[in-house]
Fold each of these.
Amino acid sequence: MKKITVAGMGPGRESMMTNQALDALDAADVIVGYTVYLDLLGERFRDKTKLSTPMKQEAERCRMAFREAVKDKNVVMICSGDAGIYGMASLMFEIGEEPEFADEDIDIEVIPGITAASSGAAVLGAPLNHDFCVISLSDLLTPWELIEKRLRAAAEGDFAIAIYNPSSRKRHDYLQKACDILLETVEPGRACGYVRSIGRDGEEYFTCTLAELRDIEVDMFTTVFIGNSRSRVIDGRLITPRGYRL
């Protein structure tokens, strides 16, 4: 049976990829992915055939992978973080239903990777050690009205929150807008934190309050963490207690 593997590569550093992902990449004839991610693979896979498309051409990138699989090539589609968390896994299954590929009997295997919520949480301390949710502030594929609804629901449910895509050049004030929504319900002193360049050169982390977070400038390489009502900072690290008896 023909096969495509969709592999999460975590932040991109080889030491933070699973052995399963590395084995799949070692066995690949063709590696497909966004150019930045292909570059992160480094020298180990320099002799592999690599195919890419620019940003916002994700569907065409998936079709490219299917066309290589039709030729009986061993194909791996790479994604940063986890392929099934804001990654390409779901789109691969959707593209597989298109008439060009539907009768090709191509199996899709998804290999998990370390997503920014878990890798960033480890850097920051333990901010997601109880019930939590992950919300992206990017409104390219999700209406802002729905993002607002999810933020309010998370605040009302007292979830710890990991925020992806908190800002960009076109969305420079989105984290501020998100904090304003949370401040409708959440106290200004709520313990928060953020991590830049997780697992890459220049990695750094900070703790702050929700009120302070509102006025902090972040970028697309930053993951933001907002604690629940029991979260606190211990020795400079953001901790959300599980509730074990001491």
Amino acid sequence: MRFLVTRPLAEAGHTAAALAARGHQALIAPMLAIESASGVAFDPESFDAIVMTSGNAARALTEHPALGRSLTLPVLAVGGQTAHAARDAGFSDVVSAEGDAADLLTLVRGRFGAGGRLLYLAGNDRSRDLAAELAADRIHVETAVVYRANAASRLPEDAEQAIRDGRVDGVLHYSRRSTAIFLDCAEAGGLGAHVQALSHYCLSRRAAEPLSAKGFKDIRIAPRPDEAALLDLIAPG
């Protein structure tokens, strides 16, 4: 089978390799272009730990002048891939919540009590306000936007043609925002009816919401919000 992988370019290669190992083909069509924002200022030495909800944060930090001073802090990551990216960036003390934002909040509350100070390295578009949610626990969170996720306006030309030609069997979706962008791009390319006929594999129920809202029928949702569970939805080729 041939799948459209909509995640950002830095992560899409890993997914393509995982699909190939299962006997499938991948066509990469990033819905978000990641741009580091190295100009943001923060002092890692004033925090107890770093929180990350995306591997993009870890990759952006490698281009930031505060990287060296940040590496002494523990990292609390939302899932395995974010944790892996943090280790690749040079962090040695990394713990994964192995889930979603709610699981990450539980991990934070279990590790830090009132008076804890956390640095949340984030993107410009966030689905939850971690600082507000942890304020009730008197855990201080400072958010530093270290990367921007810019939306695509069209699918890549080869992806559009493959969809028109019936050479795509399914689409992998990773977030609510990127799924919504995919639908906008499909409409911009006149592919609305074509993508309705495809199978859609979603990392979470939230990622599937834009598809459900438009009446898509073939929506498959991973039982856990991690890529291994998402790929397990796909039968070996």
